[in-house]
Amino acid sequence: MKMEPRAIVDFSKLAKKQLEKVPTFIAKKFLEWVQSLELDGIEATRRLRAYNDEALKGERKGQRSIRLSRSYRVIYEILNKEVKIIKVLEVNKHDY
Fold it and tell me: Which residues pair with 6 in a beta bridge?
């Protein structure tokens, strides 16, 4: 069985600032997602239904999002497909 390369996760300045303001349970779920990326890789983590990973459209084409709760989501993009560098762009409260 071929193992998927683990992901390297980087954070934008905006994402770091936003993470300081989110509730503790959101920060905890976010860290669980990052650990899953680092240990299991992006493809395995995407298959976890708990995060509802989806491609974005329109101005955000090329980016993806996951849900940390009904309100909070993470916007990210894959910078290097071979090395699996994941750049977290935002962690925000999504308006529905």
Answer: none
Taking 70 as the pLDDT cut, the residues of the chain under it are: 1-5, 82-83, 95-96
Domains defined along the chain, listed by start = 8-93 (3.30.2310.20)
Phi, psi angles (nearest 5°) of residue 40: -105, -20
Other C-beta atoms lying within 10 Å of the C-beta of residue 1? 2
pLDDT of residue 68: 93
Q: 95, 19 in Cβ contact below 8 A? A: no
DSSP classification of residue 20: T
Concatenating the DSSP letter of every residue in 31-90 gives HHHHHHHHHH-HHHHHT-GGG--EE--GGGTT-EEEESSSSEEEEEEEEETTTTEEEEEE
